[in-house]
Design goal:
With 307 residues, the protein is of the alpha+beta class. The chain contains seven helices and 16 strands.
Length: 307
């Protein structure tokens, strides 16, 4: 597939968020590409849009942090060779999760010292985690039979001037549909507990940006910027010296027409963003339904950065 355009989408959250955790009391800071795609796809169905554009003509990165100064990329799982790493504090490098894109090449080439890594860790401040105790509201007519149990929610609040971004590439029609979906989705929100006001955001779209130019660079090594998995016929691409993290992706099916009871998606394993491969694979969108009335899709297309 030849993708004609590439855009940068910045999400500015106007309320706390609850992302991607198995337990309600926990929370994460970012959204993976499969979760983002699921939210976009469900919103497209509600808007009666052509979902074929999303399935066939669009590729997304995971969401990553940004602040007033830079866009951050996931730390690449590469073996770094440099004389500067001798007699150094490796804990600072291990602590790093994200690298400013303007320092990404220096990091890969081993030009970042542990002192500089410490500065990056200290400066990385896009928000804070919170732990909130709530109680479910009980209708007066049911009050005698139902006990209101307290529960905890783990959330993340973004500092002013910070947020998440993702990059999308696709046909002009697919990217236009993406913007239409985002216009609607910003009011319903992203993540969990949206009915209580979490996950609201506004968004900005950029087509000409220094960062987009950086993503088009060419190199001999390939870094995943999305949660992805190779298709069966691409498994030969996984031969070689690769460094990756494989993560289990599961969850419940959000569809009233799929089954008359709540059902889980089939477990699926994906490579995490930051994983490094010798060869690229395209990935795809997989059916993870489990005996229901219609397919259930798990997004796993690969978005690559060459270094």
């Amino acid at each position: 597939m030849f993708y004609l355009k590439q855009i940068l989408v910045k999400l500015n959250f106007t309320s706390p968020v609850h992302f991607g955790s198995r337990r309600l009391s926990d929370g994460e800071m970012t959204i993976k590409a499969d979760t983002l795609f699921s939210a976009l796809y469900i919103e497209a169905l509600q808007l009666s849009l052509d979902t074929k554009l999303l399935l066939e003509d669009l590729v997304l990165t995971d969401t990553f942090p940004f602040d007033e100064k830079t866009y951050y990329l996931p730390k690449p799982l590469l073996m770094i060779h440099s004389s500067k790493l001798e007699n150094t504090d490796f804990k600072q490098f291990k602590k790093l999760q994200y690298i400013p894109f303007d320092l990404y090449e220096d990091f890969i080439e081993g030009k970042i010292t542990s002192d500089q890594a410490k500065v990056l860790n200290d400066q990385f401040d896009i928000g804070s985690y919170h732990f909130t105790l709530k109680v479910t509201a009980v209708d007066d007519a049911m009050a005698k039979d139902v006990v209101a149990e307290p529960f905890s929610i783990g959330t993340f609040s973004f500092r002013k001037g910070t947020g998440l971004y993702f990059v999308a590439k696709g046909t002009s029609e697919a990217l236009k549909a993406l913007e239409t979906i985002l216009h609607s989705l910003q009011y319903s929100g992203l993540g969990g507990k949206r009915s209580t006001g979490y996950g609201r955001f506004s968004f900005e779209v950029f087509e000409n940006d220094e960062f987009l130019t950086f993503l088009q660079r060419r190199g001999s090594r390939n870094i995943l910027l999305s949660t992805a998995m190779a298709k069966e016929e691409e498994m030969h691409s996984l031969e070689g010296d690769h460094r990756f993290i494989l993560q289990k992706r599961s969850g419940f099916i959000q569809s009233f027409t799929y089954s008359d009871r709540i059902m889980k998606k089939r477990d699926f394993y994906s490579f995490c963003s930051g994983s490094a491969f010798e060869k690229q694979f395209e990935g795809g969108i997989f059916d993870v339904s489990n005996g229901g009335n219609h397919p259930v899709y798990r997004y796993a297309k690969a978005f690559w950065l060459e270094v």
